[in-house]
Amino acid sequence: MLHSYRRDQLQRRAGRGENSQVDAMYQVVPGNLPAAREKQSKEVKPLICTILLGLLLVIAAVVAWCYYTASLKKLNSFKIDQLELYKDGFFIKNTANMVLFEMGFKSAPIDLESCFQDEAGNEVNCTKSGEEKVDFFVKAFKPKDTITCYNIEWKTVILDSVVEHCMHWADGHWYGGAETSTQHWPIKISGVMDPKPYVTGDVYSIRDGFGGILERYWISSKSVAVRVNDSVPLHIGWNSSDKEAFCLHARYKDSPFQPTTGQQPFVELSYQVCIGSDLKIIHRYMAKKHFRKPEITPSEFMFRYPKWSTWALFKTEVNQDKVLRYAEKIKKYQFNFSHIEIDDQYSSSYGEFNFDPVKFPNASELLQKLRDDGFQVTLWVHPFVNYNSPSFIKGVENSYFVMDPSGRFPAFVEWWNGIAAVLDFTNPETTDWFQKKLEYLRSKYGIVSFKFDAGETSYLPAKFSTHKPLSDPSLFSKLYAKIAASYCMLAEVRVGYHTQNLPCFVRMIDRDSVWGYELGLKSLIPTVLTMGILGYPFILPDMIGGNVYPNKTDGLDEIPDRELYIRWLELSAFLPAMQFSIPPWLYDEEVLKIAHKFTQLRESLVMPLMLRLAEETTKTGNPIIRPLWWIAPNDKVAQKVDTQFLIGDYLMVAPILEKGKEARDIYLPDGKWQSFNGDLFDKTPNLLTDFAVDLDEVAYFIRMI
Amino acid sequence: MLHSYRRDQLQRRAGRGENSQVDAMYQVVPGNLPAAREKQSKEVKPLICTILLGLLLVIAAVVAWCYYTASLKKLNSFKIDQLELYKDGFFIKNTANMVLFEMGFKSAPIDLESCFQDEAGNEVNCTKSGEEKVDFFVKAFKPKDTITCYNIEWKTVILDSVVEHCMHWADGHWYGGAETSTQHWPIKISGVMDPKPYVTGDVYSIRDGFGGILERYWISSKSVAVRVNDSVPLHIGWNSSDKEAFCLHARYKDSPFQPTTGQQPFVELSYQVCIGSDLKIIHRYMAKKHFRKPEITPSEFMFRYPKWSTWALFKTEVNQDKVLRYAEKIKKYQFNFSHIEIDDQYSSSYGEFNFDPVKFPNASELLQKLRDDGFQVTLWVHPFVNYNSPSFIKGVENSYFVMDPSGRFPAFVEWWNGIAAVLDFTNPETTDWFQKKLEYLRSKYGIVSFKFDAGETSYLPAKFSTHKPLSDPSLFSKLYAKIAASYCMLAEVRVGYHTQNLPCFVRMIDRDSVWGYELGLKSLIPTVLTMGILGYPFILPDMIGGNVYPNKTDGLDEIPDRELYIRWLELSAFLPAMQFSIPPWLYDEEVLKIAHKFTQLRESLVMPLMLRLAEETTKTGNPIIRPLWWIAPNDKVAQKVDTQFLIGDYLMVAPILEKGKEARDIYLPDGKWQSFNGDLFDKTPNLLTDFAVDLDEVAYFIRMI
């Protein structure tokens, strides 16, 4: 081609000199047009150009229109009953179009173009999130006229996935969740918390963790309830300054949750959101559906009379003589008693579960004497076998312990009494060995029951394996609580996870001898209310006055502050059980008098009601101790009250919880109320300000229908 | 511009119709030449074109030349003395230009353009490998006239790096490295082995691992020696079908090696390659430079007389009565003895290091009786404390044990006697406790020394932490061996890592009662030669006839095969120590006679020489037992002989190692040799075929200068 071009150029230069200017202005490039084009008439060309241009305009318009329609489609949402699904999350509105609940898909948006809705409009299925395959669905159903529920399920198909959905927490007050060290009612979240495993823990030692009593259940004052499915490897995180503040976070990576054996290790975040016509209705529906009711009630003794523990008084210095003298004093000062509980360090090493012959030279004689005096006796037990206990050797030989991840060696943990292996209750042989130890104590000494201490997952090794794998580590707490169930009536546990059906008293974690919300007197009502809402009605408050732990006590370190002790005692008298350790006679005559007054008031006033409510809860699952909103579900003030509570629906208690106070504000919800000193209040709802309550008084009100 | 073009085209079409064909053939593109160009005369144009074309050709030529030169530079290599460095590795050639050694940079090539050579040409530094920064250097130096060394160092600056250099293994025969279960001389590698940590291990239980005696040192028959620096997190891998077969692999990731505290965690692969004028010269130079010489010799007793162990005979069924009767029989059958060693399970639990009062009701009396009869007694010890030993509790309380990675809990291991914690000898308090235990045995019972068993890193937990961090886990073996050193003279250890200076006998790992190369009779000479080349001259072969472990025995399981026992005994008589457990009197008169013959021959013939060589090695570091090439370094046949050995330079031993044979081939290297039955051989080198050796004979030859 170059050749013919050059020849042609030379021809032009030689023969047609007059064209040289044009040649210089325009560089010539070889073309290759078909010969036929030359035959087109010159007049047709402009016409064709115009037609082509017109055609182009039409195509452009069509494309623009298509694009516009597609964009419109992209912006679309789905409506499933009252739920509106967007790519970034969903809203649930009430019939008045007010937002009740808002959830954001924080880990990844859903691709709405991959979604399909069924004909009835009750279900939407989506298959993609960005470029990733997911299996997402929302399904609405109405179990009752007053209740609508939505099942939300997000299943991944990629390893190491993380799914995070965050609730708009500021919408209403929230209740439920878990026991915490600083307990508020309603729940307060503050600061930023990275998602952490939602598993049982000892909040006495890990103050910012989740407690030993924990359920995957939250309800809000807007009558919305959320229950996360058991199959979810659930972590909870929050950011109080963010709108989407409270996050449900599912992952297996760097998590103690493990996929169930034989199951694909794909993360799933699935939960149910239900809305109801009011807070009480929605809670009762959810509790009925998701919690099992207690089968029977614990012993009437435990409700009626105080339990006397050796712990706060003697700590690990307990011995035969001290127990005997303690019992003598209880009788001497004419107190009633459910039972005496002999706590930590009656044994020579942790794992023996028997009396130390040095500290208890004649345990049989002691127990016989106590029985003769009418005392029932319980013993403190735990799931640990310390390395220096003879049981440790037996445990290793028989694989009774939680093992390291290899499954070859027992894994150690550190608890408050040293280094130990943990009994692996997924192994029936371990449970059998442990129960035989307890049976021996029962048959040899007549021990009637036990205080089952610990059991939280925070006392499991950081990495471990068990005889039967634990997909959710909190199932360890459940197994431990189930062992306690054989000794209920007078037993106590301090863990609760899916174990509402067990007829055991559940103890809140050890209290410090302080006034405040962090494990102090003020935390009692929020904790009791939370436990009740989580389905645990048989609540054992910790020892009256707290445990007097060093540096964790308001006042002197020997016994609790006198006033704190009195107020604590007064509050305890109205709770499902009452627990003494530091005895009232360590103070003075007045304290003794107040103690007698309130133990008697408990028996005469509280017990008839309490025992009826305990019986009732085996049928309804309703809490015995109830928040004010139980009788005023839409009362915005009642929703926030955390210093008053109801015993059933008709007895309201408003104890003094502040140091140096002999008066307090008391909120009376709608109804006719008669105060403890006989005054009638029927202009309600109403806030009684500076209502006088003397040191030897608790304000309580009877609701007259 | 489009406008002027169209106008021009129309002009041409209208006024010069004859040009339309040309126009159709050539599409016209607008140019923008300056108006001045129009004034150039038509004659100048071709000239300018020609000049421009010429210029273009010149530029092209220059570019091509530059590119060619650059390519040449890229292909270039550096020459550092006899080492040629290429981007993919290096060669070392001898003066006759024959390749002696070849190393490939398997992990990444070096960027030769980043290299600089010093003026003298002895050193090359490079800074890049691909796009990554590295610090690489090669430095040559001549420590002696006959020796040239090269220091090679490859330092990375990126975390989790891996550096791998692979040797061309087929070049020559290689010796050194580590004890292995199937031991060959020279080393045989087969199949593919992914790089694994080059650390001490128990090759009795992990048959394809590296043994308890291990150094980072290899020499080849081409007079090349390689010593890898201690700072390298060394792993060794191989691929026998590859040219670059034997790989030095440095990494921290997924490795028990850890960066030294305070050191950047960057991987370094550094080593020294030295070439010498012959194999013996290069080995002696390297040994002198890299191994410390034994400071003194162990007890003469241990060389001269057999040691008698309870192990293979009684196993863990040992007791006071059995030991006493064993000692009586040794005397009755008129055998000499260095000492009696009481092995495994003299104690009630592992960690007590004391006599079990049930099995040894009167240990003091036993020891007194043995002493009265002239016996010295040693005891078996180990670095383990089993979970069920009372010492376990003491150890946990005092942090005597190797801990889990958190450093909070002792880490368990499983050894052949159960589950145990491992004494952490990086903790001076642990060492002190252990030594006090041994001192007690010494002072209370008159125990003279100990058999220090185990000590390999394979008995450390998979993940662990120690009081003082161990950057190289084999340093644990070193620490353990150092403890043994206080009890040397009659002590034995079975680990060796940088501990050639200790005056202890080093025992090869337990042998099976089999004929073959895998821990059998045939493995003895390769193992002894390897230990010698690694700098350990005081070698304790395992028990005569092997340990008679069930299913690991050629013949019946009760005592070793008679012929195997005899041949093993005969070979042992020529090694630095002799160890009985299964006694000759369990067989018959002939075996007893052979045993007496060889224990006597040992004392009369071997000992004068052996003791002189032992003394000599404290000055030279030379092995006592030497390979044939020690006196014939360039003899290609001698380099491969693994069934004969030299005691010093003048006594050569050629035992029978095959079942049913009473003759064997014997290679005589250059020299004048007189056989054990008096025949003289001076036509050498020579292979004597089918040389007769009766059942009660060992062929040995004296080299007459």
In brief:
The structure is a homodimer of 705-residue chains. Chain A is α+β, with helices and mostly antiparallel strands.
Any chance you could write out the topology, listing elements then pairs?
The structure is a homodimer of 705-residue chains.
Chain A: H1 2-15, H2 20-25, E1 26-30, H3 44-74, E2 78-80, E3 83-86, E4 89-93, E5 99-105, E6 115-117, E7 123-129, E8 132-144, E9 147-156, E10 162-168, E11 174-178, E12 192-197, E13 214-220, E14 224-228, E15 234-239, E16 244-251, E17 268-276, H4 279-290, H5 300-304, E18 307-309, H6 311-314, H7 320-332, E19 340-342, H8 363-372, E20 377-381, E21 384-386, H9 390-398, E22 412-415, E23 418-422, H10 428-445, E24 449-452, H11 475-485, E25 492-493, E26 505-507, H12 524-533, E27 539-540, H13 562-572, E28 579-580, H14 589-620, E29 625-626, E30 645-647, E31 651-654, E32 663-668, E33 672-675, E34 680-681, E35 686-692, E36 699-704
Parallel strand pairs in A: 18-19, 18-28, 19-20, 20-24, 24-25, 25-26, 26-27
Antiparallel strand pairs in A: 2-3, 3-4, 4-5, 5-10, 6-7, 7-8, 8-9, 9-17, 10-16, 11-13, 12-15, 13-14, 14-17, 15-16, 21-23, 22-23, 29-30, 30-31, 31-36, 32-35, 33-34, 33-36
Helix pairs in contact in A: 7-8, 13-14
What percent of residues of chain A adopt helix (DSSP H or I)? 25-40%
Could you give the order of strands across the largest sheet of chain A? 2-3-4-5-10-16-15-12
Mean pLDDT metric of chain A: 92
Strand content of chain A: 25-35%
Round the Cα radius of gyration of chain A to an integer and report it: 36 Å
Number of helices of chain A: 14
Helix and strand composition category of chain A: alpha+beta
Inertia-based shape of chain A: globular
Major sheet of chain A: size, sense and barrel closure? 8 strands, antiparallel
Beta strand count of chain A: 36
Poorly predicted regions of chain A are 1-39
CA distance, first residue to last residue of chain A: 109 Å
Quaternary assembly? homodimer
Please give the most extensive interface between any two protein chains, plus how many residues each contributes: A-B, 37 and 35 residues
